[in-house]
Amino acid sequence: MAQIVVDDLSEDLVSLLHERAQREGRSVGAIISEMLAHAAKPSLDLAAADELRAMTPESTLDLTDLIREDRDNVGAYR
pLDDT, tens digit, for every residue of 28-49? Predict the structure, then answer.
């Protein structure tokens, strides 16, 4: 298994990691490995957005004209 060395961690962070590991009955390495695995995975929101995008048909509608028309007719609605 590969190893990664991280320099310049604050003492506070290292202490928090040790406290969490002790509280959960696990090693600091296991805690950090889980954090890195979670951070490396694409978020579910991005995956869901990609699925929705794939299901949505392409639109050729240019909204610029509709926005201009609406903006120009603001006074008509008052």
Answer: 999 999 999 988 887 778 888 8
